[in-house]
Design brief:
The chain is of the alpha/beta class and 158 residues long. It contains three helices and seven strands, in the order βααββββαββ. The chain folds into two domains: 71 residues, Orthogonal Bundle (Helix Hairpins); 74 residues, Transcription elongation factor, GreA/GreB, C-terminal domain (Chitinase A, domain 3, Roll), CATH 3.10.50.30. α1 runs antiparallel to α2. The protein is elongated.
Length: 158
Amino acid sequence: MSNINKDEILFTPEGLESLKKEYRELVEVKRPLIVERLSEARLSGDLAENSEYSQAKEELSFIDGRIGELEEILKKAVATKTDHRQCGQVGLGCRVTVKNSAGENIFWVVGEWEANPAQKKISYTSPLGKGLLGKTVGDEIEVEVPAGKLVYTITKIE
């Protein structure tokens, strides 16, 4: 992973598909509904006192902002070609089981835009993600955290 192109934004295939789905939903469903609401609210009189108009206008602005953000991300998005059955060493898209003194954890190494610690999805650029990349089953890694160092042993890669 050391030859990462800085102009690319890496995703797992699932993560990229999820982003494309969000984009389509915003463009094809949500935005047209808000535009329709805005149009109907505009027809109902005084815009200065029309809370429906103000709310729809605010929602449209938010959706347009998110659409713009997603378009920029999608221009640079690249899906990895990880075959999960062939994860001999940790790479983007692999699910990694690690063990330390506190017990066992399973993490999924994903792109930065997919990271979600609550779902155990860690970015390959995070301290733990960087430590795991390229390692194999049985390898031990040290991760520097605010409370000190954590030592993990990789027990499974899938």
